UniProtKB/TrEMBL annotation:
This is Calcineurin-like phosphoesterase domain-containing protein. It comes from the Eukaryota. One of its GO terms (molecular function) is hydrolase activity, acting on ester bonds. Residues 1-27 form the signal peptide. PANTHER family: METALLOPHOSPHOESTERASE DOMAIN-CONTAINING PROTEIN, PHOSPHATASE DCR2-RELATED-RELATED. It comes from Vanilla planifolia. InterPro entries: Calcineurin-like_PHP, Metallo-depent_PP-like, PAP14/16/28/29. Residues 63-331 form the Calcineurin-like phosphoesterase domain. The keyword Manganese does not apply.
């Protein structure tokens, strides 16, 4: 008994933090599952509502979204160069937001470079990444990339020729030493708890430790209960998790989309971080010119696709309501290409962290409500815009 009390006292911060994370996110999921059952097992209109995050709505003629991809805050956090990059990333975000005045921002993964952060609480950098949007009072949502909860890698220059120094973990001797980072769940939980403008969610428990799997509804200007568009977020892994959209996620998508949009009447847009192999199939040959019907301005590297795939793209191309998929990850690609009935699009490298020196910018999406149309373009750090493309009939 005395031994276990001692253990608890030694590890109290880890235990309490883990419990807090569990209760915050399990409360959301319990509410969701109770609401989705409905009275007597029959689904009523209002029972559907808590299945998806609400609160976004067409207010005028259109709804505009800015995609911020691959910001990579916290790069080289131990020297001058890294923090200077972060200042420049703040500036890119502000310029895009001032020029576009979007209704919503989607952070498309790799907000931070956790493998460059020698601190346990990467939430500090995460908070910095979302602060330009929060500062302007614009709501947002996030999904995870492959760098957001990656383990810290010790830079080689830290090791002297005399030998490798002792590792100093935040909780010396504890199991947390093996990870040396901040878990996906802690990052998103901190964000949700501290930001009323955040629409991010922890995702269903059956898909954990993949976290950013959830749906948001953009409601009609005529009726806040009436969906006009559904946004689906999927966690394509990386970091502490394999780079994959799993069979369980495919099953979840099929079930959820069938429930909330049974006749596929409502347009649907899909967001994740690491491109599917289908991008290789439809995209221009690496380093060649981008020709019509594709649209974009840089095609300077090969598509770096997910490790393994479990049929997500096949499900999407057979669903008429899905209009487009948006990914980040490749900093040297920014094109959109049609694939059967939908479009596969890259965002644009937004942050100064991460590899490559291509000019920074953001992909913008603009939707009109009735009839539904979707157009997109790239807004650059110098204020210019280009690569306009219509992504709906
Ligand atoms: Zn990246």
């Amino acid at each position: 008994m005395e031994k276990s009390l001692k253990w608890f006292w030694k590890h109290r911060s880890v235990v309490l933090c883990t419990l807090a994370v569990f209760f915050t996110c399990s409360a959301t999921n319990t509410a969701e599952s109770l609401a989705s059952v409905g009275v007597g097992g029959t689904r009523r209109r209002n029972d559907l509502a808590p299945l998806v995050g609400k609160g976004l709505r067409f207010s005028g003629l259109s709804f505009r979204i800015a995609l911020f991809a691959d910001l990579h805050y916290g790069e080289n956090a131990w020297d001058d160069w890294g923090p200077k990059q972060d200042v420049k990333s703040d500036k890119v975000q502000s310029i895009v937001l001032d020029n576009e005045m979007p209704d919503f921002v989607i952070y498309l993964g790799d907000l931070i470079t956790a493998n460059n952060l020698p601190i346990h609480n990467a939430s500090l950098y995460w908070d910095r990444a979302i602060s330009p949007t929060r500062g302007k009072g614009i709501p947002w949502a996030i999904l995870f990339g492959n760098h957001d909860d990656a383990s810290f890698e010790w830079p080689l220059e830290w090791f002297s020729s005399a030998g490798i120094p002792d590792v100093h973990c935040p909780f010396a001797g504890g199991k947390s030493c093996s990870f040396r980072g901040t878990m996906r769940m802690e990052l998103v939980k901190e964000e949700i708890e501290n930001n009323i403008l955040s629409h991010s969610q922890c995702g269903p428990t059956e898909l954990w430790p993949g976290i950013s799997n959830y749906i948001l509804q953009i409601s009609s200007s005529k009726d806040p209960d009436l969906p006009s568009v559904f946004l689906y977020f999927l966690d394509s892994g990386g970091g502490s998790y394999p780079e994959v959209i799993s069979f369980a996620q495919v099953k979840w998508f099929k079930e959820k989309s069938r429930t909330i949009n049974p006749d596929a009447r409502i347009p649907e847009l899909i967001f994740w971080h690491i491109p599917s192999k289908a991008y290789k199939k439809v995209g221009p040959h690496p380093k060649s010119r981008i020709r019509s019907p594709c649209s974009g301005s840089i095609n300077d590297e090969e598509v770096a696709s997910q490790d393994v795939e479990w049929g997500m793209i096949d499900v999407l191309i057979n669903r008429s309501s899905v209009k487009a998929v948006f990914v980040g990850h490749n900093h040297g690609l920014d094109w959109c290409c049609p694939y059967k009935s939908l479009w596969l699009c890259f965002a644009r490298h937004t942050g100064y962290g991460g590899y490559g020196n291509w000019a920074r910018g953001a992909r913008i999406l603009e939707m009109k409500e009735d009839p539904f149309t979707l157009t997109s373009w790239l807004r650059m750090e110098d204020g210019s815009s280009h690569s306009y493309v219509k992504l709906s009939p």
